[in-house]
Amino acid sequence: MAKDLSIPRASTPEEVEVDSKVVQAFLDKCMEENKGLHSLMVLRHGKVACEVYREPFNKDSVHMMYSFSKSVTSVATGFAIDEGYFSLETKFLDIFPEFRNEKKPDAYLEELSVEHLLTMRGGKGVSVLSNRSKDSWLKNFVESDWYAEPGTQFMYINECMYVLCAMIVKTTGMSVTEFLTPRLWEPLGIDVPYWETDPRGIEVGGWGLMLKTEDAAKFTLCMQQMGKYAGEQVIPEWWVKAASKKQADTKASTNKPDSQVGYGYCFWRCAGYENAYRADGMYSQYGIVFEDLDACVVTTAGEINTQQMKTLMWEYFPKAFQSESYDPAQTVALSIPPFEKPPASKRSFMEDKIECQRIRFSKPVILNIAGFPVSAVTMPALYMEKDRAGNINNVSFKFYENDGLIMWTEGNEVNCVKFGLDGEYRWDYMKIGGVKYETCSIAQWKNDHILELHIRALATVSERVLTFTFDNKNRVLLKPSSNPPSSDMLNQLTGNVQDVVANEALRKALLKFLPKILEVVDSKHYGIVT
User: Fold this and answer.
1) Which terminus of the chain has a lower count of CB atoms within 10 Å, N or C?
2) pTM of the full predicted structure?
3) Please, what is the angle between helix 486-500 and helix 504-521, to 10°?
């Protein structure tokens, strides 16, 4: 009989000394401040004390983990080092000698080591706007400007993690996902997850991993238990200790409190509680370990202001583990309201006119030049992918008694997704940019001429809203938007530029360029019914 590797559940939060009233207060505050929380799992004494999913998210939903992925890359690197494939001192050029320039030696490149990459002190300032559709990511990394000598200055550069993945692939002869299957996924009982790759099939390392909430919790709990899970040593204990302690000084790199107190091997130390560290992904994907409290907190979310989210968390955690009001006899049933969805509406005569007709849209030239063609998936899911998909076209609809279908093309992919017209979601799948997404979709006729369609790809952090306006001359206007809005994504990008682009001239150019992207990203699209 196969061993059950799910995390044991406590009968109540109070059973494992978690104050459910404090946890509910945190959930209430998230709703009050519109923090975009998707799921929360609190663990103590090796058990799940409580878990909450905000509808339509559920326990089976996989979720983009963004930079949480870096912590998994760290563990993959730890396995490779522990098994002798390379060491912390191994140089980049030891593994990739083809990048050594014999005619014009690069002294800094000769120094660059595994440890420099793990601690974000690689010295290479790769642009956040690099073209990731090209298949020469290593070459792009090598040819990027040096911002400092390796090992001397912290700067948060995603591509450092990609280089580590490339090293693992080169030395083991396996993809990182394959390498981790018997070492991490199987011992933790995690189904082999999707992980975005470069055009050559190498995992991107710094982002792109999709996990369920419990998968992220298993990983976090394993770290909290010094690498043990279900009684077995999974991650080498020495690596857990080394990866979770401060290895790099980060104070000068940012003005965000929780990014100033130090960085380990792809894990952040925490400002809100001294004896805590975390895996940390954009839009507030967290795996927080409270080292001296035998506790963890895991979240998935769509909250753009990650420092505000962390600051809010410190108000309630570790208070939930140390609360003076703790009463084991009083358990609160935790709840969180679902995401708002449009109600059922009166149907339109326009359904008969457009049913099974093809709507062709012109290809927006500026959007394609900018590299952000309009997609059924929102920008946060695509802006770092090698294939940004986009250019919705050949749209057609079918309508039934309580629901409908939308069909469309993006690039070489054809999708057909159900949507509810009765105020309820319909569940389906779509494939965008080579990635399969589970969807829940719902639509509403705002009036006889305007159909508003909400498509949420559950792995992503935001909902796509496509508003179609039909006139009486077969013309169609498509206005895309998102919840949270694309402007929030731009603000995040702007923040990244300020934090990670050292070259002042380049930083100013990017900050000037990024607002222009927003002007066209959610611009109107014009089509005609044929």
Assistant:
1) N
2) 0.93
3) 170
What tokens does 243 get?
């990866």
Q: Are 374 and 332 in contact (CB under 8 A)?
A: no
Cα(390)–Cα(357) distance, integer angstroms: 21
* Distance of alpha carbon 24 from alpha carbon 184, whole angstroms: 33
Residue with tokens 């169609």: 476
Residue by residue, DSSP assigns 43-101 as EETTEEEEEEE-TT--TT-EEE-TTHHHHHHHHHHHHHHHTTS--TT-BHHHH-GGG--
Q: 315: which residues sit within 8 A by CB, 6+ positions away?
A: 26, 29
Mean pLDDT per segment of 10 residues, for the chain of length 530 residues? 88 95 97 95 98 97 97 98 98 97 93 98 80 76 94 94 98 98 98 95 96 98 98 98 97 87 98 96 96 98 92 97 77 94 94 95 68 75 67 95 96 94 97 93 97 96 95 93 74 54 54 58 83
Residues 301, 63 contacting (CB under 8 angstroms): no
CB contact at 8 A, 113 and 77: no
